[in-house]
Design goal:
This protein is of the alpha+beta class. The chain has three domains: 72 residues, Winged helix-like DNA-binding domain superfamily/Winged helix DNA-binding domain (Arc Repressor Mutant, subunit A, Orthogonal Bundle), CATH 1.10.10.10; 120 residues, Beta Polymerase, domain 2 (2-Layer Sandwich); 111 residues, no CATH class. It is 56% helix and 9% strand. α11 packs antiparallel against α12. The longest helix has 27 residues. The protein is globular, with a radius of gyration of 22 Å. The termini are far apart.
Length: 324
């Protein structure tokens, strides 16, 4: 007898129900990446879905068998069932999704490192940096350099991307914009709406307001103060999202294999800290004024591995800090 309506067999086509909506995908992605059970409040915070939406979606995912509840009442948590027959395939799917993004960023950094002359800074801006892009939207990259050389630098970078088929490999369109410090001061959209740092110094550090102190002294002092404030935001984020740490360690492993000696030392230091420090010890270090902490704060390694919701949470914490 032919099946009536739109219902599909759970035995034959379980993925239809598991990945049946955008909300299902969002919740399942968070649960699989977290590696540990989460409360409904955790899911609410990490997904930006409505409270009722979180409860409805987890209930439907439980009905598919891929997710289960643990505990009861206010202590009830939600977790993925690793014994579910398709769990590994689903985990691999989300890992490949994340790996594609990481590989694109690594490829861009690699091409920047192979330029005859590197930019002072490079970053992704626009909808891709904000996590609001749709398929087909360009990945917008800004290269910061001197007025006399920025055009040739931009041209060389564009040529490298074409030669190495970066756009076709990752199925993206890349838009490169050469900018100067004057552009940063007159075009706030280049930095204000969120960036993904690729190379050199964070572009925001070029926008220090003028003061009576010498530019170099003020720049270094502002940079240290800003990096300390940012470290406090990171420790808050790592406290609520500890799964960021193992993802960062995996990224550092890949970067260490491809990096020159000078930069490699800092990557190794970060890897050692993340692998061998308790959270409390890591927090104390990241927020300390020791010379080593000040130095390593200039190369915080976490941003590249963040999910869209983690990026949004970081920005919210940043705004909260400004208001205190």
């Amino acid at each position: 007898m032919k099946n009536s309506g739109n219902h599909l067999s759970a035995l034959r086509y379980p993925i239809t129900a598991i990945l049946g909506s955008k909300g299902h995908v969002i919740v399942l992605r968070v649960l699989i990446r977290s590696k540990h059970p989460l409360s409904h409040s955790d899911l609410l915070e990490r997904t930006d879905l409505s409270r009722q939406g979180v409860y409805d979606i987890t209930k439907r995912l439980v009905e598919t068998g891929v997710v289960t509840y643990t505990g009861s009442g206010r202590q009830q948590l939600v977790k993925v069932r690793e014994e579910y027959p398709l769990y590994r395939e689903l985990e691999n799917l989300f890992n490949m999704e994340n790996q594609r993004y990481e590989s694109l960023v690594e490829a861009l950094r690699s091409e920047l490192s192979n330029l005859e002359r590197q930019p002072e800074s490079a970053w992704i801006f626009g909808s891709a940096a904000r996590g609001e892009d749709e398929y087909g939207d360009p990945v917008q990259i800004a290269l910061l350099g001197k007025l006399k050389t920025i055009d040739s630098l931009t041209g060389e970078f564009r040529e490298k991307l074409i030669q190495n088929r970066v756009e076709s490999t990752f199925d993206v369109t890349i838009d490169i914009r050469g900018v100067t410090i004057a552009d940063l001061e007159t075009k706030p959209s280049l930095t204000e709406e969120g960036t993904i740092h690729l190379w050199g110094i964070d572009p925001e550090n070029y926008l220090n307001p003028p003061g009576e102190e010498s530019a170099s002294v003020k720049s270094h002092r502002d940079l240290d103060e800003r990096s300390l404030a940012e470290s406090k935001i990171w420790t808050e984020l790592l406290k609520s999202n500890p799964e960021i740490i193992p993802r960062t360690i995996s990224l550092l492993d890949k970067q260490i294999d491809k990096t020159s000696t000078g930069e490699k030392l800092e990557l190794l230091e970060w890897k050692n800290l993340l692998e061998n420090s308790s959270f409390q010890r890591l927090k104390k270090f990241m927020e300390s004024d020791s010379q080593r902490a000040v130095r390593l704060r200039q190369s915080l390694p976490f941003w590249q591995v963040l999910t869209e919701n983690e990026m949004n949470k970081f920005e919210r914490l940043k705004e909260e800090l400004k208001q205190t």
